[in-house]
From TrEMBL:
GO cellular component: terminal bouton
Leader peptide range in chain numbering: 1-24
Protein name: Uncharacterized protein
Keyword Transport in annotation: no
UniProt keywords, alphabetically: Signal
Organism: Pristionchus mayeri
Length: 152
């Protein structure tokens, strides 16, 4: 039963870590109409990468929300500084902190953004590896034998 308790504890810790990761990212919920009636339901959007929201926070809300949402739908982050035409360019998540600025003001390469990006990627990799290992190793739970051992 000690092994079963240890396995259960590991499972609880992994679940709590994943729940914490999932709930630490604020995801907006948008209402959607059902048919032509007045009934509404909530249709949560696809999971989004928080990088655009982090840039929004770090640059004092200078990115318009419609630009953030448009970039999030492309799994990208909106640049805080607008391009010469006034639009906020979308930067692919894989291009953030690659030592080549894509934003007009090079905000995608700032230490604050890169620290968060690298730390988040490292934590996601660690949790993914832990979850894979957890589900690959069967628990060592003693099983009851179908035969009686006659007291031996």
């Amino acid at each position: 039963t000690i092994m079963a308790s240890a396995y259960f504890f590991q499972l609880i810790c992994a679940t709590l870590a994943l729940v914490h990761l999932a709930t630490s990212i604020a995801i907006p919920v948008s209402p959607a109409k059902v048919g032509s009636g007045e009934q509404t339901y909530y249709d949560p959007p696809e999971p989004i990468n928080p990088m655009g929201r982090l840039m929004q926070k770090e640059y004092n809300q200078s990115i318009p929300m419609d630009a953030i949402i448009a970039c999030e739908l492309k799994n990208a982050a909106a640049c805080p500084s607008p391009s010469s035409d006034g639009t906020h360019r979308c930067v692919n998540i894989g291009d953030i902190c690659d030592h080549r600025p894509q934003c007009p003001g090079a905000e995608d390469e700032t230490p604050v953004i890169c620290f968060f990006h690298e730390d988040a990627m490292r934590e996601i990799t660690r949790l993914r590896n832990y979850a894979i290992a957890l589900f690959r190793i069967p628990p060592n739970i003693p099983r009851q034998s179908s035969q009686r051992n006659n007291g031996y």
